[in-house]
Each structure stands twice: as structure tokens, then as C-alpha cells.
Amino acid sequence: xxxxxxxxxxxxxxxxxxxxxxxxxxxxxxxxxxxxxxxxxxxxxxxxxxxxxxxxxxxxxxxxxxxxxxxxxxxxxxxxxxxxxxxxxxxxxxxxxxxxxxxxxxxxxxxxxxxxxxxxxxxxxxxxxxxxxxxxxxxxxxxxxxxxxxxxxxxxxxxxxxxxxxxxxxxxxxxxxxxxxxxxxxx
Length: 187
Ligand SMILES: [Fe+2]
Hints:
- The chain has about 190 residues and is α+β, with helices and mostly antiparallel strands.
- Helices cover about 15% and strands about 40% of the residues.
- It has a five-stranded antiparallel β-sheet with strand order 1-2-9-4-7, covered by helices on one side.
- Strand 1 and strand 2 form a beta hairpin.
- Helix 1 runs antiparallel to helix 2.
């Protein structure tokens, strides 16, 4: 890992350059992943307020950057102990890097063809703990859930092709095979 400082401004410059050069999601994720890891470990951007999370939502969403058209959105998300987010997609590509603590991620496959409104059938693909500096990357349509199984607040750095409240993305209930809109409260 380089010891040269890597700031949020540097990261945003790189996001702009990479997405100007290609619109291939695999290529975008491949190039942004190591930079997100670098920013996650640099922590020069991290402030005390980023640990804030309301008990109602169970996690706190803090916007670090977005472009005027809501693209290239960067958030730090804080997760309260024993809380998490249900299975969801993002409506865009996503690169998540662990910052503090380990977060349990479960990845899902979608089994139905998406033709029925409010219906979705999921199966579990795999699960893993994403610790500091580790990546979770998803193309558009990728589904995961996140849970903080630790007894301390965890933090992760999330970068999306577009601000997730502007992508018409969904949350899923695998018990009832239903889906609905997923809008988050941003601190
Ligand atoms: Fe997510």
C-alpha cells in the first residue's frame, strides 16, 4: 500500500477520469476497487460525525460527494451493532470498501424473470465478512444484504454510479418473495 496520501478530491478526480474513459461496468469496478480500498485505508476524510446512525433506520448514510446530476455518489455508511439492511439492489454499479470493523455480507441470486410487479424470488449465493480494506463490488442488478454482527459501530465507504435514492432500486423480502422501493434517509 502506498504511503502517499490519497484524498477524497483525488478519488473524485479518478472517478471522473475512469467513467469518462469507459462505460463498461466490469472495467469501472476493476479500476475503482483498488482506489476505494486506498481511500478507505487513508481515512483523511473521516470525521466523528460519520459514526452517527439513527436507531430507526439502524444505519447512518453520510454523503461525501455526488455530481450535480447525482452520478458518482460517495457515502460513508455507519452500522449500529446488531443492525443491518435487508436484501437490496442499487440500480447502478456499487463498490464498497470496509473502513472500521467487519460487516457480514450475503449475496443473492434473483431466480424469477422480473415480470411480476412487487414479486421477487431470491436464493443465497454466498456470504462473507468484509473487514477493513476489503471490497464488495456489484454490477447493476447485484443483490446483497449487510449486517453488523459485532458489538461496535462499523463503517464502510460506498461508491455508486448514481446516488441510490435516484435509481429506483428495490429491497427484497426472501420470506414472502416480495420487493418494494428502497429509499434511505441520508444524514
Ligand atoms: Fe448495498
